[in-house]
Every structure is written in structure tokens, then in C-alpha cells.
Design a protein that fits this description.
heterodimer, A: mainly alpha, 0% strand, globular, B: alpha+beta, six-stranded mixed β-sheet
Chain lengths: 314, 493
């Protein structure tokens, strides 16, 4: 196991190195000059040229990357060009929005998709199955941003139950924060929930007609126990694989939904940074998201061992 | 017991009869874009000006709501030769840190703007300044190298705000000034809060205790926030398509006014076929501007004939000078050697919604005279590099929000690539002519020359579209400068 973990850590470092190099090149090859975006069309080209020099953007790209890398290795991700604050601090300041949002969306996804998928599989080719499939089809078909707007219209404009957007913060207690993330989490989780319902259903169907399930039933094991112990646990590996990938996708989906709900999260930070060519922020956020996804995948791999004792990594 | 009850009654009555403290006047404003920093001497961004200019920081001179230049941090100014301007500072004006504004601060600000090291985005505007002489704490003279008709206007621009020299390092995140509001908080990505400056130098102002700017980029989300009552005013976020509905809603008031934002379609004057003035005129004749305003802007916006906007005192209405005439357009194209028209690419940046919509209407109209347009949407950063900096384009649409920006046409390196010696001479003359009548005449000639050469197509003025809850008063109707003055805004009692 120790050797396995060492291998994974090495792969983790290599992934980050590769991702950071790729992003560094891509954001600099993109047409668009950070100095011009900062100065804008009202500023003079001379002012933009002076700013470009001051930002160190005239130096060879390899020199810039080497410098960035050596500082990043020491935990310094540089300073934001537009906010003039350390990138690390900026990312940390956005986590109290994006992390709970993603966790809430994921919780919603798990709490809805697993029972619904299980139910659909149990009712295979019966009305309940078809109904669950239609619901999940609708979830897949509705884009998240549109679902977000519909939710705002219903719950904020018409019913006035929750605020239409913005983030209340955690300083006023748990509920105001959770309340302001509720609609975005539903909108964010909708698509992934719908996908997971289908994955759960098909995975459970694969297991449901296995010999050991039939044997369990024949032995007189209660239906609940058959489902929970014999079926679901064995069906879990593909479900966990899909769910792990979906967690990464939830973070990507947050980019759009944070704009719709005017949430000061990591997604909006990334979007604004790309538009403003705030290269250190783009770099920092990408690195953070890549690390998170690698870590989630690692956690999923470890979870396999728990779910299936036959899996060994040594 | 009865005694106690009586005492309680008296206490209750005292509380009830005591004059109630005036309720706090707060305003929550939606803006689409978060400022890329709050230093007006480092960025010309309109998102920064919307928060800081007039509200947190002010200049010696101010463009008021009628577009007039009025003394502001200066009590008055004096010039006998139009080259030496002496400003007499208002006494008792205090910065937000409590220190009084003195002439030495003004000198520091402009010395810094002139220093290339500080990278002031509008440093060029101050090149006319030769010397800055502090006469005493409240008197300062600017000695210009040449007569400059725009000098007072330059002193009123957002890059000319006066700040205390000790706060220069923190301007980007915590600007200090003399304005009616102080910066309260900036929660990056979410909101900026301004709080009332109780020592403001204009008595009785400001009327609001607190202003919160909320950044809501999505127009539909902005509309929802307004309808749900989460914001009191939407300033720049709503499009013309939202206006008709909101005008019918008794909960809101809609402000539709003029701005200095000229929406134009630029033709690359250095690239064929637009090097030929007949082609440029043909394109102008091929465009039905009132239909463009109707199709792209729901009829909101004023048709434009040249680059001088209606809020400019030298504005001449040229909107009818080259009316829609497809036959004439075809004839001109044939004369220029394009009897079957030609193809061109129109580059637009969807960050500005009106550019795409306007482009679609224009493409349809120009097809009828044989000009086949392919619309290419590019992102704003790319637009700045490819179109604005490198002039790598055929056609493009954009709004020019700056007031008094006709000088762009006198710069042959500007992205229009319009190079007319005659126009440049006229413009230079207008810059050094101080006499109002003579300058007006020059501006009339300037506008006629522009119409004649048709370097771009001036389409319409982008209207000011602001929506507030009923009861908000004191907002400017027109925007003679791209500012958002909240000093006189209040709620009706």
C-alpha cells in the first residue's frame, strides 16, 4: 500500500507539472494582451506597453514559467493582476462559497440519484421505471443555467422564499449561508443527478439478476437486506466511479451557475480572470482545480478497497 | 402594584413619544462588472469610475448633470492668457483620513500623473502642462506649454482625481478621497460597500447612509434580483428588451436618457475596399439607421450622424446628412469598381450585447446592396489585440463612451486608420482655439468633414437605461460624462 501511495503522489506531482505547463502556454498563446485589457481602449498604447513591461510579460515564456514554478513550489502563486492581492489568498477567499456549493450539489445528487436509480431498477420495465427515466431525461435535457433562472423566478420572484442571488456568508450562522446556496446547488446538481440515476439503475440491474442475489432471496433474506447488502454494495463500484468523475464536473459547472446566482466563488473568479487575462489567477485556479480532481480520483481508488475487499493495490 | 403599572405606562409613553431616529437610507445597486481595481490613476475602466469617481474621489473641476464644467474642489479658477490657469482651492475640504486638502496635494497628484514611471493610463492628456506652481496652501497655478482648449475638461476627467499623497500605495484597493462616500468594504467577487462621509464639503450631502454595489453579470439574474426586491436599482445591467415590461410595472421607475456612448461601425480605412471613400459612403447609404435602432435596441437610442454626441455643446444634428438610399449605395459601389458588391468580415465582441445584435441587422441590410457580411464573434481580449491594437479587421462595431473623443479621428494610428491631413489640421486648430464662437465654427467644420469622408458609420447613441424602485430620486437622467453620481440620491420620505 505504501508503494502504491508513493506512486500516486509521484503521479500527482507529474499531473500538476503537466497541467501547469499546459495552462501557462495556452493562456499566453491565446490572442489578447493582459496589459491592453487592463488599460482598455480609452488608455493609450504607450501606457499599455509600459504596463506590459512592468508586469514582466515581455520576457521569454520559459523564463516566466521557470520563475512562476519556483515560486509555486514554495507555495507562492503570485499576485493577481487585476486585484493586486496574492492569488493564494484570493482562492482561499472563494472556497467558502464553491466548496459548500459543490458538497451540497453532490449530497443532493447522492440523496436523490441512488434511491431513484434503485427504485427504477427494481421496477424494471414497469411504470415506476419509465417515470424515473423520463424525470432523468428531463434533468439531462435542461441546461443548468436555465434551470437556475427558472428556480429564481419561482422561489425568489414569485414566492419570495429565498434571495435571488448573492451569498449571505457564514458569519451570520449556518442557515443564511445554506439558504443562499440552496437554489444554486439544486441547479448545479440537476444534470449530474439525472446522469447518476441512469448509472445507478443500469449498475443495479446488472447485479440484480446475479446468482448470489437469487440465492440470498432463496435463503429467505429480507428484501431490504438483499438490496442493501447484496445488490447495492456490489453495484457500487461503477456508481462510485461515475460519481467521482461527476464531482470534478460539478466544479466546472459552478463557473456558469456562480454567474447566474452572482456568487463570489471560484468559478466566477476563473471566468473573470480569463476575460481580464489575469494570468496568475487563471494559473492558480487551474492548478487548484486540477489538484482537487486528482485527489478525488485518489479517494475513489481508495474507496474501491473498502467496497470490494478483493481489490488490493500491492 | 398599581404604582408599578403606572410607572410602566409612563415609561412606555416616553418611549413612544420620543422622536424616532431617522431610518437609515440605504441603496443596493446592481452593476454588471466588478471593477478591476479602484485606482482611477491606473485604470480607465468604466466599472471603476462607476464606483469611485464622484462618489469616493473628486477632481478640481466637475462635469455636472447638465454637462457643464463647474468648479468643485477648486472654488474658482482664473486665466488671463489661456495658458496660465490658477485654481483657488475650496477651504476646509478634508480627505477621508481627516487631513485637509492643500495645494501641495494637487501638485503631487499631477506630478505623479506626468511621471512615466507611474503608468497613468491617460498620461498623454497632461502633456500640455509645463509647470505646476504652488502659490500658497489654497492657490495653485498650472503653466501650460501651449494654449489647450481642453485643459479644464482634462482637469474634470476621472484620471485627475485628487487623493492624499500618503494613501498613494493603497489606491488600488482602498482609495481615499474627498467624496461624499468612503469605501466601507470590498468583498471581491460579490460587492462593494460605500458609507456616508459625515464631513463632506457640500452641506446636506450625501443623503444616503450606505450604498452597496452588487456585481450581477447576467442580465436575466439582474432583472430577477430587481423584481425580487433584492436590489433597489439596476444601473448598467439591463438591456433594452427589459424596458417595455418594466415601464408598465408600477413598482419601478425607468430612466431612459442620453449618453456620450456613440455606437459606430468602423471600416478599416487602410484596407481595401474601404480605402476608397466611395465604398465607405456606399456602406453608409446602405444602412437604414432608424431600422437598426428599432431592430437591435427596441427603438431606444438616438440616430447619430457624426462622432460629436448630442450632449456636447458643439453638437450639430447630422443624422439626416446621409440617409438610407440603397440605389445611391449601389451606384457608388459600381463607380468604385464593385458593381456586384464584395464580401467582408465583421468582428464583434459579444461581451457588449448590442454589437452582435446591431451586426445582425446591418448584415441583413447591407446584403441588399451587395455587401455580404460574415459575422465573427471574438472575445473582448482578442478584440483589443486584433482589432483595436493591430487593426486586423474589415469591419467592427463598438460603442465609444468617452466624451470629447473626436480626436481619435486625428490619429492615423488609431484603429480606424483614417488619415486625413485636412481633418488633422482642423482638429489641431480646435484644440488651441479657446474662443467659444470660433471653436464652435471649427467643430461644425469638423463634423461636416467627417460626414464627407465617412471613415466609420455612426449608428446611434447607446441610451442610458436605468431602472430603480419607485421612491429613489436624485439620479442623473442623462450622462454627459460616463459617471454614476450618487451624492444627491435619496429615497422619497
Amino acid at each position: 500500500m505504501r508503494r502504491y501511495i508513493a506512486r500516486r503522489v509521484a503521479a500527482f506531482v507529474a499531473t500538476l507539472f503537466f497541467v501547469s505547463g499546459l495552462v501557462f502556454v495556452v493562456v499566453r498563446v491565446l490572442p489578447g494582451d493582459p496589459a491592453l485589457v487592463i488599460i482598455g481602449p480609452e488608455g493609450s498604447p504607450e501606457a499599455a506597453a509600459r504596463l506590459r513591461e512592468a508586469l514582466g510579460l515581455n520576457r521569454p515564456i520559459l523564463v516566466q514559467y521557470a520563475e512562476w514554478l519556483s515560486r509555486a513550489a514554495r507555495g507562492d502563486l503570485g499576485r493577481s493582476l487585476q486585484y493586486d492581492v496574492p492569488v493564494g489568498r484570493l482562492i482561499v477567499s472563494r472556497l467558502p462559497v464553491t466548496l459548500p456549493l459543490t458538497v451540497m450539489a453532490a449530497a443532493l445528487m447522492a440523496a436523490t440519484a441512488l434511491p431513484l436509480g434503485l427504485y427504477a431498477a427494481r421496477r424494471h420495465r414497469r411504470a415506476g421505471d419509465y417515470l424515473a427515466m423520463v424525470i432523468s431525461q428531463i434533468g439531462i435535457a435542461i441546461p443548468g443555467f436555465w434551470a437556475g433562472l427558472l428556480l429564481i423566478l419561482l422561489f425568489s420572484v414569485h414566492l419570495g422564499w429565498v434571495q435571488s442571488g448573492g451569498f449571505a456568508g457564514w458569519s451570520g450562522g449556518l442557515w443564511p449561508g445554506v439558504r443562499s446556496l440552496l437554489l444554486p446547488a439544486i441547479a448545479l446538481g440537476l444534470f449530474q443527478t439525472a446522469v447518476l440515476v441512469r448509472a445507478t439503475r443500469s449498475s443495479v440491474l446488472d447485479v440484480l439478476y446475479q446468482d448470489y442475489v437469487r440465492t440470498a432471496r432463496a435463503k429467505g433474506v429480507s428484501e431490504l437486506s438483499v438490496l442493501a447488502k447484496h445488490t447495492l454494495r456490489n453495484a457500487m463500484i461503477p456508481i462510485v466511479t461515475v460519481a467521482g468523475l461527476q464531482l470534478g464536473q460539478l466544479m466546472a459547472g459552478a463557473i456558469i451557475l456562480e454567474s447566474v446566482f452572482a456568487l463570489p466563488g471560484l468559478g466566477r473568479l476563473a471566468l473573470g480572470a480569463i476575460t481580464a487575462r489575469d494570468l496568475p489567477v487563471v494559473q492558480g485556479v487551474t492548478l487548484f482545480v486540477a489538484s482537487t480532481i486528482v485527489l478525488i480520483n485518489f479517494a475513489v481508488d481508495l474507496l474501491y478497497v473498502v467496497l470490494d475487499p478483493r481489490i488490493r493495490y500491492d | 402594584m398599581r404604582h408599578l403599572a403606572r410607572l410602566l405606562l409612563v415609561a412606555l409613553a416616553t418611549v413612544a413619544l420620543a422622536p424616532a431616529a431617522a431610518p437609515a437610507q440605504n441603496l443596493v445597486v446592481q452593476v454588471a462588472t466588478e471593477p478591476p481595481g479602484l485606482d482611477l490613476t491606473a485604470t480607465p475602466a468604466s466599472a471603476t469610475a462607476a464606483v469611485v469617481f464622484y462618489n469616493v474621489q473628486e477632481a478640481l473641476v466637475k462635469v455636472d448633470r447638465h454637462g457643464k464644467l463647474v468648479p468643485w474642489l477648486a472654488e474658482k479658477w482664473h486665466t488671463s492668457d489661456n495658458k496660465n490657469y490658477t485654481f483657488f482651492l475650496k477651504r476646509g475640504v478634508r480627505f477621508h483620513n481627516g487631513r485637509e486638502l492643500k495645494a501641495a496635494d494637487v501638485k503631487f497628484v499631477f506630478d505623479r500623473a506626468l511621471n512615466p514611471e507611474t503608468k497613468h493610463p491617460a498620461a498623454k492628456q497632461y502633456e500640455a502642462i509645463g509647470d505646476i506652481i504652488v502659490k500658497d496652501d489654497y492657490t495653485i497655478t498650472f503653466a501650460l506649454k501651449n494654449t489647450n482648449a481642453n485643459f479644464l475638461l482634462t482637469m474634470a476627467r476621472q484620471g485627475s482625481v485628487i487623493y492624499p499623497r500618503e494613501a498613494v500605495e493603497s489606491l488600488k484597493s482602498e482609495p481615499l478621497g474627498t467624496g461624499p462616500y468612503k469605501l466601507g468594504e470590498w468583498v471581491r467577487g460579490d460587492r462593494i460597500g460605500l458609507v456616508k462621509n459625515p464631513d463632506y464639503h457640500v452641506k446636506g450631502l450625501p443623503k444616503l447612509d450606505r450604498v452597496t454595489y452588487r456585481f450581477i453579470p447576467d442580465p436575466n439574474a439582474a432583472l430577477a434580483a430587481l423584481k425580487a426586491g433584492d436590489v433597489d436599482a439596476a444601473m448598467f445591467g439591463l438591456g433594452p428588451e427589459h424596458i417595455p415590461d418594466l415601464q408598465k410595472d408600477p413598482r419601478f421607475q425607468v430612466i431612459v436618457g442620453e449618453t456620450t456612448n456613440d455606437v459606430i461601425m468602423s471600416m478599416n480605412n487602410s484596407k481595401k475596399p474601404f480605402t476608397d471613400v466611395r465604398v465607405r459612403r456606399a456602406v453608409t447609404y446602405g444602412i437604414n439607421k432608424p431600422e437598426v435602432v428599432k431592430g437591435a435596441m427596441f427603438g431606444l437610442g438616438r440616430v447619430l450622424g457624426t462622432n460629436v454626441d448630442p450632449l456636447n455643446p458643439y453638437f450639430v444634428d447630422m443624422s439626416g446628412a446621409m440617409p438610407y438610399d440603397p440605389m445611391k449605395a449601389k451606384k457608388l459601389l459600381a463607380e468604385a469598381g464593385y458593381p456586384n458588391g464584395f464580401e467582408a468580415v465583421l468582428k464583434v465582441a459579444p461581451q457588449y450585447y448590442y454589437t452582435v445584435r446591431t451586426g445582425e441587422v446591418l448584415a441583413d441590410q447591407l446584403q441588399k446592396v451587395g455587401v455580404k457580411i460574415k459575422i465573427e464573434q471574438i472575445e473582448w481580449g482578442q478584440w483589443l489585440s486584433r482589432v483595436w491594437k493591430d487593426a486586423d479587421y474589415d469591419l467592427t462595431i463598438i460603442g465609444h463612451a468617452e466624451a470629447w473623443d473626436v480626436g481619435n479621428y486625428a490619429n492615423p494610428k488609431y484603429y480606424f486608420r483614417y488619415d486625413s491631413a485636412e481633418f488633422q489640421k482642423l482638429f489641431q486648430e480646435s484644440e488651441t482655439t479657446v474662443d467659444d464662437k470660433a471653436r464652435r465654427e471649427l467643430y461644425v467644420k469638423i463634423q461636416k468633414k467627417l460626414v464627407e469622408d465617412a471613415p466609420v458609420v455612426w449608428l446611434y447613441i447607446h441610451p442610458r437605461l436605468a431602472v430603480t424602485k419607485k421612491g429613489v430620486q436624485g439620479l442623473w437622467k442623462d450622462l454627459p460624462a460616463p459617471v454614476f453620481d450618487l451624492s444627491e440620491v435619496s429615497w422619497v420620505k
